[in-house]
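Is it possible to get an amino acid sequence alongside its tokenized fold?
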Amino acid sequence: MARHYNAFQGSKVRLAPPCPEDRVQIAHFTENYDYMRNMDTDIATPQTSDETGASSVRNGQDFEFALRTLEDNRFLGFVAIYRIEWNNRSAHLAIGIGHERDRGKGYGSDALALILRYAFHELNLNRIALDVIEYNEIARGAYLKAGFREEGRHRAAVLRDGTQYDLISMSILAADWSAQTGYPVSFQPAVVTPADRTAGSASVSNNSEVAPRVGVGAVILNERNEVLLVWRNRAPEQHTWSIPGGKVDAYETLETAVIREIKEEVNLHIAIGNLLCTTESIHPELQEHWISMIYSTKVIDGVARNREEGGAIGEIGWFPLHELPSPLASFAIPALEAAKQQYTKKHDIDSSR
């Protein structure tokens, strides 16, 4: 069977073996008080290079990788799958991005997606768990967006600066990860319909529990006629350039939903122009069916930045409307074509005046 991806490489970072100089870098990270307060519940102390990091990827029941950028091979931090119980196919996860300047740029979300794929596909694990301190809201949000679920709390387990905080236990199962990303797992239980049982079949039903979902998206143009696109880290349409947007919540109007999603994803307050088009994305093999309304919009306030660190979005960027990157998400293509036609028509009208 052909391989469809590099298990060591994401869209922004790669998993690399530790180097001696990395341990020096990690020792430097430990001099940052906030870094240590978020990484561990133990007493925060600076560490020497002999006390930090690993000398090899595989160490007993642990796997620890260095994180390096694809762009310039720069060391970012580490990610580890540790305390593996092979009989239970379970393990724990730890991740650390050292410098504050490297946060909020999609490195963490890409690394998280990459190590989960490695854990579920390469190590064939079924459950990945972690603990996060209550006050570390950025990390907790990142884990939730990656598909982790909160399992419980160790009440008042952490005492910091005279205040007690809960230690939150979270986990993600292979089946949850598969449903969210679209990647298969061979041991995911099949959904068998009553008709299948009558016929003695063990086939998986592609439509018994799937209903169309409603989404919204926005084509946002700036004064240079560049369109804002986002890199999708997760399904639907994973590893493509797309327009920002998301699903419509219950009892929410379409226009309210698109304004909310754009603010949550890319930090922009927008005004809606007109409905550009309606698109459908049907993927029975992933048990997905989306109907999306795409709007032409303009920016009222804000500077575009990724607010989905650790979530569905990796990189964001402005691109000339007639020089778009690839691959593009299938549902975004008709919307962008409609935007081009609308811009061309408006340009022709303005030129004729």
Q: What stands out?
A: The first strand starts at residue 13 and ends at 16. Residues 61 and 84 are 5 Å apart (CA to CA).
